[in-house]
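Please check our next protein.
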Amino acid sequence: MTDDIPLSGAALIKDQVRRLPDAPGVYRMYGEDGESLYVGKARSLKKRVSQYAQGRFHTQRIALMVSLTRSMEFTHTRTETDALLLEINLIKQLKPRFNVLLRDDKSFPEIVIRREHAAAQLKKHRGAHSIKGDYFGPFASAGAVNRTLNTLQKAFLLRSCSDNVYETRSRPCLLHQIHRCSAPCVGLISLDDYQDLVAEAEAFLTGRSRAVMARMSAEMQSASDALEFERAARLRDRIRALSSVAQETQVNPQTVDEADVFALIAEGGAACVQVFFFRAGQNWGNRAYFPRVDKSDADAEIMAAFLGQFYEDRPIPRLILVNAEPADHELLREAFSMKARRKVEIARPSRGEKRELVDHALANAREALGRKMAEGSAQARLLAGVGETFGLEAQPERIEVYDNSHIMGTNAVGGMIVAGPEGFQKNQYRKFNIRNSELTPGDDYGMMKEVLRRRFGRLAKEEEAGENPPRPDLVLVDGGAGQLDAALEVMADLGVDDIAVIGVAKGPDRDAGLERFFAPGKAPFMLEPKSPVLYYLQRLRDEAHRFAIGAHRTRRAGEMRRNPLDEIDGVGPGRKKALLHAFGSARGVSRASVDDLEKVEGVSAPLAQRIHDHFRKGA
């Protein structure tokens, strides 16, 4: 008696079709070891999936996908719209091999006018809308939102400081001195007048900028007529700040108040989607995306998949302009309207200003794709050069570079950056807070060992468990023979000594171009001063150095911001705020007597004694 051979490919799909309903839903195809191959939606699961079982495929890619299929899963839904929304969600979760995939799904920055305080705070925000207030965005980049915040501070003089800083101010801060804050914290403006400034800022961010500027101009004229020249000059500066917004942005449409503009260009198996954001009649920036596609994918399919994934966890505007009408256009529009709880329009304009906006985005997409493809070709040559320089068997697909940063051993942080055929892979970067308290301060070898032990210890465990974690082809460590030996010792202990490791030592006086390279079993060597490979390796080392220093500064700043009151049991945010308000600072609290501490609202006699004792430990 022989064991039954499990079904696979078209035979497996044909067997599954017999039990499928003629109803909407989502299907998932899986390969060996549970690899996610494809997620699709269907108006009729039975009809759609049966097409894969017939063996007649439009492309070799679909034929390959079917041949690799080892199992399938199905989810029935109430409507085809529900199936579309579920498909989008599953694609973002599973990242299937054969789906069009949006690879960069970072959230966009926004501006929030925070309403939890009597004097509203103006600040940058990213992520969920967990703060009570009014949100404006999205902005395409941190640079775009910072420029707008800068303008708003100049024009409306709203505070950006935290509540703790606001409550403990006794005199105006530097922002007031440079005319970017009206200083409500010390009463230089009444809360009623401050609220008027907040209302003007909100009006500007919701598209009523002309009315705001007209009102300011009339007020400036009145001040001038009344010989209040200082006040008139301040209003003039505020008007100039608002006018600069129109001058700084390249495209400010007259007929589009709120829209996202998408332009797709696909060539040679690569694609670029350029996205422009228009809010309040202003251009709030643009960003280029390079989704994973196949050369057989039609523009309509790419656009539909991209839009669905793009808006899976982002707010949807009332108008979406595209240069290629997405597949299942009406179904997508219905799904977006249902998600946004209002009507959403998806349009491919043929004339007028809307067409000009799409054409402008398309020109940007074409240029961005050209640059990306040129960079990719150059990147491949550089990686081939790296492989040849270090005697690797093949061109490295993943390079990991490690560096440490600290000041006299304090707040030590290790950094790992990753590079490959597509350049720096910033979503793969990792920082390691050095935890070993037994290390001698400044022990760079010990720090490098800890970082590599944590990184490759985890790699070894995941591989032992049958997982497929990202494995580097080349590891670069900042340092000479000592750092290389430390790295090789850790790799050998963990059983991952089949990964190439190279030490990069800075030249005399840290001069670029005089770096020495250390490889196991070889004498230290240098590269030709004008070698493209040398320049590339310098970029990798500098990026690792930049990342490690940034992580160190962030950790150090966090330590500096820590308040001694945070270390006392029983002192939460409310009591901390009351203590700081009563004594002005943590130092003031430290000098207070037990009797004075007891007078603060919420501070009991035992807590007052505990606070008093905390600041006198070891005294």
In short: The chain has 20 helices and 18 strands.
